[in-house]
């Protein structure tokens, strides 16, 4: 026992311990991806015992879901995309998607999400199902064409490619081009997929 009456070792839970665990997990998922992140490593980074992480989260999957909370509600994203003229939907998609990536918190979360999707079949499945239900289907419905899901899927390939090149790989000049110019260049391509 120490002079303060506490036993040595990891600190107990405090008022924001859960938040600190989530932040440590977010950083670990962003740096290492889903497969290489462990509950023990997250606990170590947060300065708590692994049992305390398990107290708040039943599994690594649950911790991931909490840590990777996308900075905006996917249903709200879909609502913003479909609200407006069809001939401007490509611009709205580019603006909303890149807007999430441009915020520091959003970028950290999205990097972690992308890295985890490519290292875990389960995370990829969860994301695929969630994105399809909350974003792809609502956008496809407003297009009102037989191959709407294919069209929205092609848009997804452009967005994912852009995000990888700009935010993960840092390929120039895409990595440093100003966001408005990038949206101006990307929007017509997305629009062509959707309504062309």
Provide the descriptors you would attach to this structure in a database record.
71% helix; 2 domains; mainly alpha; Tetracycline Repressor, domain 2; disordered N terminus; single chain; elongated; 196 residues; Arc Repressor Mutant, subunit A
Radius of gyration (Å): 20 Å
> In this structure, how is the largest beta sheet organized?
none
CATH topology tier name of the largest domain: Tetracycline Repressor, domain 2
Helix-strand topology string: HHHHHHHHHH
Quick one: CATH superfamily of the largest domain?
Tetracycline Repressor, domain 2
The rough form would be described as elongated
Kindly report how far apart the N and C termini lie: 72 Å
> Poorly predicted ranges (pLDDT <50, ≥5 residues)?
1-11
The helix fraction, in percent, is over 70%
Q: What's the CATH class label of the largest domain?
A: Mainly Alpha
Backbone structural class = mainly alpha
Write down the domain tally: 2
Mean pLDDT over the full residue set: 86
What is the number of helical segments per DSSP (H or I, 4+ residues)?
10
The CATH architecture of the largest domain comes to Orthogonal Bundle
Q: Count of DSSP E strands?
A: 0
Percent strand? under 5%
Structure notes:
The protein is an all-alpha fold. It folds into 2 domains: 17-67, Homeodomain-like (Arc Repressor Mutant, subunit A); 74-195, Orthogonal Bundle (Tetracycline Repressor, domain 2), CATH 1.10.357. It contains 10 helices and no strands. The chain has helices at 17-32, 39-46, 50-56, 60-67, 74-82, 89-102, 104-119, 121-143, 148-169, 179-195. Helix 1 (17-32) packs across helix 7 (104-119), helix 2 (39-46) crosses helix 3 and helix 5 packs antiparallel against helix 6 (89-102). The longest helix is centred in the C-terminal third of the chain and has 23 residues, at 121-143. The termini are far apart. Residues 1-11 have low confidence and may be disordered.
């Amino acid at each position: 026992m120490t002079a303060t009456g506490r036993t040595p070792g990891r600190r107990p839970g405090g008022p924001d311990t859960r938040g600190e665990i989530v932040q440590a997990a977010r950083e670990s998922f962003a740096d290492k991806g889903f497969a290489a992140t462990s509950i023990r490593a997250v606990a170590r980074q947060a300065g708590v015992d692994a049992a305390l992480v398990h107290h708040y989260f039943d599994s690594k999957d649950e911790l991931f879901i909490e840590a990777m909370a996308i900075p905006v509600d996917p249903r709200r994203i879909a609502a913003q995309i479909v609200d407006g003229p069809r001939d401007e939907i490509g611009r709205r998609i580019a603006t909303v998607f890149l807007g999430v990536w441009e915020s520091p918190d959003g970028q950290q979360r999205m990097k972690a999400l992308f890295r985890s999707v490519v290292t875990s079949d389960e995370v990829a499945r969860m994301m695929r199902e969630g994105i399809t239900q909350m974003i792809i289907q609502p956008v496809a419905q407003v297009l009102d064409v037989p191959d709407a899901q294919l069209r929205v899927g092609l848009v997804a390939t452009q967005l994912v490619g852009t995000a990888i090149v700009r935010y993960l790989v840092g390929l120039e000049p895409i990595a440093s081009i100003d966001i408005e110019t990038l949206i101006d260049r990307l929007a017509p391509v997305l629009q062509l997929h959707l309504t062309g």
